[in-house]
Design brief:
The protein is about 40% helix and about 25% strand. It starts with a helix and ends in an 8-residue tail after the last helix.
Amino acid sequence: MAGKKTSRAWMREHVSDPFVKLATRQGLRSRAVFKLEEINARDKLISAGMCVVDLGAAPGGWSQLAAPLVGAGGKVVALDILNMEAIPNVDFIRGDFSEDAVLKRLEQALDGRAVDLVLSDMAPNMSGVRSTDQARWAHLSELAVEFARTHLNPGGTLLVKCFQGAGADDLRREIGALFDSVVVRKPKASRDRSREFFLLAKGLTDEARQRAQPGETV
């Protein structure tokens, strides 16, 4: 009974959410697009000609925003374990990012092109057990950071979703050792009660990029 009440409460909140309504009116894939839109307007992440990787992309809101911004000379590669309907000028890969075979497909889709921006909106399936969910999130975030370290151009940018709790401070310190700057962003479209926030890291250092393991290529 409690689970049904929680589900009904979430649905009421969702359908009354102004960002959900706005996304529907504008024909956008999800309310999440407004999170990236706000951060991009403030921090100028995406520009024409860039190569962008969108991790945890489904249903495609972030790729939907990024594709026209990078333009014909740019590239957007999106990945998710869930299916995603096609978006013009976006290469989509369906698979589990933690699997080596899926990562290899992602690298092939890049076709030797170095990445300018890694976006990670990845989040685990929530179990309801906070310690378990936090550990799952930390694992996904570590994977995103490692991918950024080994595939970003020197000077490249990472935007990764985080959750307040165990491991968040450690992740920020880890990212801070790899990039010139790291700041916290909590866009308006992130619900106030949500523990979600984003770490924005700019300027992957030459030293961090050069520490990539032998055999890893951009």
